[in-house]
Input
Amino acid sequence: MKDDSEVRTDEDLGRILQRLDGRGYKAYKEIQGGWAFPDFSLWVDHVQGDPFAAPSRVRVRVPASITQLPGEVRSPDARAIGTACLLARTFSHEARRVSGSRGSGKSGEVRMEAPGQEVLPHTAVQVDGDGGVEARFTVGLPARGRKVLGRQAAALLCETVPAIVERSLLAQAHPHRELVRHAEVNQDAEVLRSLLEERELVAFVADGAVLPRRSGVDDRPLEGEAVVPFESPEPLRVEMALPNRGSITGMGIPRGVTLIVGGGYHGKSTLLRAVEQGVYNHRPGDGREFVVADAGAVKVRAEDGRSVAGVDISPFIGKLPAGTDTQAFSTENASGSTSQAAGIVEALEASARVLLVDEDTAATNLMIRDRRMQALVPREHEPITPFIDRVQALYRDRGVSSLLVLGGSGDYLEVADTVIAMTAYRPQKVTARAREVAKEFPTGRIAEAPEPLSPAPRRIPLAHSVDPSRGKRSVKIQARDGNRILFGRNELDLSSLEQLVSRAQLRSLGQALLLARQRFMDGECSIPEILDRVETAVEEEGLDALSSRQPGDLAMFRRFELAAALNRLRALKVRSEA
Ligand code: ADP
Ligand code: MG
Output
């Protein structure tokens, strides 16, 4: 072993690897640590145990003098994040192109997780304000059987990796206007979202935006002649001034209660979905670059079968047949309506400012009880206070807006501040007409919310119930397929969180849950206080607050998804305080 203070170069690394040729795989441990390459520093943070294990973790830092990234693409932060996404996508692409199998297991593979359509701060590539770049990726150290392939390893680390770096992380690797576009579009989106507040809007959908996606499993924009670009209805049209793009127009969705109505297959859910995803920025070419929503917009839906831990759902669901207490409602197996009621209360607890609901995924009996049902089933036999009787007060008393896709229930016309009708993917403002209709066809419905919404009790999670251990391991957390997280002995199902957009986010949530548990669950902190503290830690320390291992596969997440993850932990126990 060389002394730590001595600088080891890429040439040393090459020599050592040649020397290790033919030795047992464990011999690779010798290359752990830092290496000075001509143009960058490289760290081997973790060496895999065998050729079939998770690949080795490697990091490079390229100084500003080498990246030559111009100021306009690295500050302010929003620009650096847009740039980082472009670099990460390019790195990932180049890595796939030039690296390949060189022996057994994952030998020879260089991999970086490419960002999807959303532009999120992530750990794969980080661009500093001064233009330095750090990239984190994995390398399958080459082996034949379980023996070191030293020459191949030397070529991989000392030639292939520098080639990938050169073709992805330096300014010269990209057409200048591409770099600038990624930086500017992301800054514009950020500014656009910040303008919503002063304009008293919950969302903005730009004219010309392409909302539909290729398929349910392909998030890229739909292409071809069938696409109808978004066109704002005149009465809802607003103009926004962006720092780079200049002035753009689009539909502003005002605060309050907004209904999206229209025939089946006319684009209602597609519009809502774009708003849902508008809490994040999108890459240039996505079609939704200038579709933004209040960062506090939360999709709520029915999710029968989920667990619920001590949630006060009494504003929506009163005494249950078995006499079950709904002020601290717990179940292993929620129904459609109780799951959605819990979802709403949990979103409010986490400080949601906008609730998004789609009829396609809502529990009808939680949304509405019409005149005839009121007549047939007496109030005292119906525990549910439907959302229709709470939605106005939510806005009036708490400032929480709602955006609802509800093609089937005209009763909502009475409580809506704004009604948008979709016809063949084209929105129209029909608020006035909706008021006339409501007058012309009175439903005779009786409002059923006798008391105002009372503040929910504080829920304090009990740390022992959030247990990350499994067998002999004190911590076992793993992101799994289908938006599941293995957390200790629990399998957390997050497949219903429609605003969870990447596996990197999923991993972050698993780690954030651990951070919350280890640092903030002291038996006194309530759930919102814990969310605040995790948020502050990530703001101050970056995503590296989530792990001491400097992983390259984490992405930024919201407090709402973290709350949702905690709330879906089947073992969760809470103490309630009024
Ligand atoms: P709804 O919720 O009103 O029933 P959806 O939003 O599910 O309708 O849309 C129905 C279909 O139309 C989907 O396949 C969607 O991809 C497609 N679609 C939606 N908006 C557009 C558009 N602007 N241009 C072309 N196709 C669209
Ligand atoms: Mg729909």
Notes: Residues 298-440 form one domain. The chain has a mean pLDDT of 95. The longest strand covers residues 246-254. The radius of gyration is 26 Å.
